[in-house]
Amino acid sequence: VAENAKYEMEAESNRVNLSPIPPRRGLILDRKGLPLAANKADFRVDIIPQRLTDEEGEVNALAQLLKFTPDQTQDLRDRLSQAARFQPVQVADGLDYESFAAVSVRLPDLPGVIPQRGFSRYYPTGPSVGHLIGYVGAATKEEYDKENKNPLLLAPGFKLGKDGLEKQFEQELRGIPGARRVEVTASGRIVRDLDTREDVQGQSIKLTIDGGLQDFASRRIGLQSAAVVVIDCHDGGILAMTSMPCFDPNTFANGIGRIEWKMLNDDDHIPLLNKAVRGLYPPGSTVKPMETLALQHLGGSPDEKVNCPGGYQLGSRFFRCDARHGLLDMRGAIEHSCNTYFWTMVHRVGYEHVAPIARQFGLQQDFGLPGTGQRYGTIPDPDWKMRRYHQEW
């Protein structure tokens, strides 16, 4: 009664907030139903930069509570400086309960800090599926604006697909968010939970990929720079598609540090490039079956023989073969992969006749592989050379 105005104002400051609960993402499964992308329960801590009152002090307090190294502390400062003020910034996830509790009890001194229990994305086989599956991350301002300022994208802990199949099938994998009604004070401290509507997990997606084969191919390449694609010749299903070396999508999903990001960018084996669908390379001897068919289409005899003296003279240049094969017919040329035979025969009939066959084999085609950003190469022919070099073939 004596201090009615004061307590009335404090009571009015208590409000009911409706906060979205990020939905669990749908699983990405291999052909046998084994998960290539899953969810795991975890404890995490996020920051809403807009709510910070003493950014430097709170960062130092969190670093001490969570036992951060100097590099981890600097990474957090960097993320805060680059984030939009409204965007949740991940401090840490995968915390044990003791660390989570240590932050929770200090909340009155840490406005803007949000500890929560939820789910994070997990890739059981790590780098073997990095380029194929992609990864998830917090929404950027551009993504927030593109979705008409969808409040779900601001929910602490929410991640959306950034690359690969995670991005391609974002809407199917996302699910339906839940909601929590809580009573909060004017400073944002939660007084009590009122009620909760559970989220609905996203739709799972099943691939033709064989997870065991995918993992084997990745380990077999090891530290070399290479790509492997295995296709079921009966139905065209892709059983494995891996490019190595590769990044670990778990690192990207959890917020990659600046040192690791620099290492990936500086690596001369280009781990950030999906070589299976974005690398462009000279075809080498794989073009010889196409040349063989072109010769047969033009009525060439498979019994005609060409002498291989160890190379082929074209103008003033001598192009070497890998051996002196002597007289070879078409079958022998294929068996020995003789460059001289094919240089001789194709030069005679004209390479422009090989180009259509190469296109029938699928070269220079975009196959619409979801989430890959496929690039395709060039099949040179007279029209191409005129456009490119303004010269006759």
Characterise the protein shown here.
With 393 residues, the chain is α+β, with helices and mostly antiparallel strands. Helices cover 34% and strands 22% of the residues. It has 17 helices and 16 strands. It has helices at residues 4-13, 55-65, 70-82, 97-104, 130-133, 141-146, 164-168, 170-174, 211-221, 249-253, 258-266, 275-278, 288-297, 330-336, 339-349, 354-360, 382-389, and strands spanning 15-21, 28-29, 35-47, 89-95, 113-122, 136-137, 160-161, 178-184, 190-197, 205-206, 226-231, 238-244, 306-308, 311-314, 317-320, 326-328. Strands 2, 3, 4, 5 and 10 form a five-stranded mixed β-sheet that branches. Strands 1-8-9 form a three-stranded antiparallel β-sheet, with no helix packed on it. A hairpin with a 5-residue loop joins strand 8 (178-184) and strand 9. Helix 2 packs antiparallel against helix 3 and helix 13 packs across helix 15 (339-349). It is elongated, with a radius of gyration of 30 Å. The N and C termini lie far apart (99 Å).
Provide a concise account of the structure shown:
The chain is an alpha+beta fold and 393 residues long.
Which short descriptors sum up this protein?
elongated, 34% helix, alpha+beta, 393 residues, 5-stranded mixed sheet
Summarize model confidence as the mean pLDDT: 88
- Rg over alpha carbons: 30 Å
Main beta-sheet strand count, sense and barrel state: 5 strands, mixed
Distance between the termini: 99 Å
Structural classification: alpha+beta
